Amino acid sequence: MKSTSPHIKVLYISQWFLYSAIIFILSHQPHNEYIPINIWDYDKLLHLFGFFLYGVSTFLLFWTAFPSTSIKFRYLFAISLAIFFALSDEFHQSFVPGRLMDPFDFIADCIGIIFSYFLFRFRLINIFFHNSKPISHDA
């Protein structure tokens, strides 16, 4: 794999911290009474999409921050970190007025993370890192 420039590393690391902060800030908002309660499916789709993007962000972080580690290590720790963040986000919401820790939100978050893994593994890695041939995932 080609070495990533320091500027790109800073960009990918910064975007991960920014995206984590955005999720935290959004999760810290008290329940808005004006939002209809019957948007269950819509809410889960937002969780799925939000954590899909968070998963991609986390994979980019691990791909640039730890270039000399094995591919399996990067995938394992990126998925673990993203799932831990999703769980801690739900736990955090239990302390916000009008919010609660919803296991179905956590499941939607995890599904989004898993989707990001498959997309990153089979397509995005070649786009972001400009490889002319697919990366072997056997290492």
Distance between the termini: 12 Å
Low-pLDDT segments, ≥5 res: none
Number of helices: 4
Mean pLDDT: 83
Number of strand segments: 0
Summarize the main sheet: none
**Radius of gyration from the alpha-carbon trace, in angstroms:** 16 Å
- Determine the fraction of residues in helical runs and give it as a percent range: 55-70%
| Secondary structure category | mainly alpha
Instruction: Indicate how many domains the architecture comprises.
Output: 1
Strand percentage: under 5%
Task: Please describe what this structure looks like.
The chain is mainly alpha-helical and 139 residues long. The chain has one domain. Helix content is 70%, strand content 0%. It contains four helices and no strands. Helix 1 packs antiparallel against helix 2. The mean pLDDT is 83.
Structure described in brief:
The protein has four helices and no strands. The chain is an all-alpha fold.
